[in-house]
Hints:
Blueprint: E1 3-15, E2 25-42, E3 47-48, H1 61-71, H2 77-94, E4 103-109, H3 119-135, H4 144-156, H5 163-170, E5 173-177, E6 184-186, E7 191-193, E8 195-199, E9 207-211, H6 220-231, H7 235-257, H8 260-274, H9 282-293, E10 299-300, E11 306-310, H10 314-325, E12 330-333
Amino acid sequence: MRIIRTLAHARAGLIGNPSDGYFGKTVSVIVSPFAARITLYDWPTLEIVWSQEDQSRFDNVRELVQDVKVHGYYGGVRLLKAAIKRFVEYCDLTGAPVHEKTFSIRYETNIPRNVGLAGSSAIIVATLRALMEFYEVTIPIDILPSLALDIEKKELGISAGLQDRVIQVFGGAVAMDFSKENARVDSALGLTYGVYERLDTKRLPPLYIAYSAEAGEPTYVVHNPLRARYEAGDKVVVEAMQQFARLAEEFRGALTAGDVDEMHRLVNANFDLRTTICNINRDHGAMIAAARSVGASAKFAGSGGAIIGIYRDQSMLQSLTQALKKLGCTTIPLSFDV
């Protein structure tokens, strides 16, 4: 029996977010301790196996309530279904053969939910990778993130940008340009994609992420109001998105120059700019304040519930870990040896 195993890591927006959904520029990195994993193998019928996140049997009503808070109402099976559907449609559009063999597929993930580490897109990217291997189909690396985004937006109605899928496809650290003038379009597929540049992770300063599952909230809480304001032409939001993109450009230059002080400043500036257009959850703001109190830089890794920043040395990392632990947070130094 052929067994296919694939994965996609969690990710953190290092600089520039949330401009990725607004024709901006970002730098993003993978978070290697966390990943969504797919197992696919030959089976007499096409079977999607439910995971723990899709359970429908509970010991009591409180357990059900907690499950919905953590996993939502639909779990991850809908992500697999949507990915399989769109993969087949992609093959039909491009003329790639889809053989008649069937399979069983299941997923598992240790990516913390609702803290902005891109757990849903990781499941979709890992699923697409497994399907590509099963059907021996190659999807161009620049197109794959756009297909993954299209699955979430058009099939599932999830508001999102390209950043998460790009870094999960490319890995490591990636600078992304989503500006209108540099946008590329595959008209046959109806997909738009940006300009993506892999960065040398050895040039990055020491980075950490910290997260609190208790402080998490769904992405739409932040992004839906922001999208509405942007589409209505809110000048403050539009100008902020342009400034986020400039911060990403400046960070890229500081990285090339090895200027850690400037990168530190820019990370902090990214969060400070965010406060001008978003209502900051009190618990999330406390995480930022705690990190900065020991000298680390800090900004949201995504929509909230997780932060990312630069620390100077092991002594600062220890102080950072202790300060954030008081808020119920887990702190992890990032490594890119995967």
